[in-house]
Write a structure and sequence with these properties.
By secondary structure, this protein is an alpha+beta fold. Helix content is 61%, strand content 14%. It is built from five helices and five strands, in the order H-E-H-E-E-H-H-E-E-H. It is globular, with a radius of gyration of 26 Å.
């Protein structure tokens, strides 16, 4: 009788395991689909940022200085950007602190672009203060601006650096504006 009971319990155990296993498979498949859908949505918003990043890097070539990726923690601590406000981003800075070059591009969470825009404008102000003694770098920052197109917010300091030995202040400004116009044309073309 005990053998019969053990066989019955074992059958129930196998039966329960099949249901648990089936339920687990269904959960994993549905979860995978949800993750896949979310990934596709993020991929679409990230592709605009990727297209911009590639276009800027291609345009500036060897003069594209921001090559160090900026992680989420650094964005919060050093740039004031809360990840709660960010859907996706690409962010890079120069390897050396003597350069102000930076590439900051964000797709904001719906309704949060204004917060990111404000933080990037604040960061631009901090750069101007930090490099006020370096006229060539200051001109490059001064020529820059924060762009906003819907939920996309972008700030870049990019382009060829002026030769601080052979240039005067008016040359710094002319060169910085010329370099920034290249950036501006790319942003307008991709986001209009």
């Amino acid at each position: 009788m005990t053998e019969l009971r053990q066989d019955a319990e074992m059958g129930m155990y196998k039966y329960k395991n099949k249901w648990v296993l089936s339920a687990l498979v269904v959960v994993l498949i549905c979860g995978g689909l949800v993750i896949g859908i979310q990934y596709k949505l993020e991929e679409r918003s990230h592709s605009k940022l990727s297209d911009l990043h590639k276009a800027i890097k291609d345009t500036y070539g060897d003069f594209y200085i921001p090559s160090r990726a900026i992680d989420a923690d650094e964005l919060e601590l050093s740039y004031g950007i809360s990840m709660d406000d960010v859907d996706s981003y690409i962010a890079e800075s120069a390897m050396m602190s003597t350069y102000a070059d930076v590439f900051l591009s964000f797709k904001a969470v719906k309704g949060r672009a204004d917060v990111i825009e404000t933080e990037l404008k604040n960061y631009r102000g901090e750069l101007l203060a930090q490099f006020s003694d370096n006229k060539a770098v200051y001109a490059k920052i001064e020529a820059s601006q924060v762009f906003r197109y819907g939920d996309y917010v972008i700030y870049m300091v990019v382009g060829q650096n002026s030769d601080s030995i052979n240039s005067d202040e008016s040359t710094y400004h002319e060169q910085a504006k010329s370099e920034f116009i290249k950036c501006q044309k790319i942003v307008v073309k991709l986001f209009k």
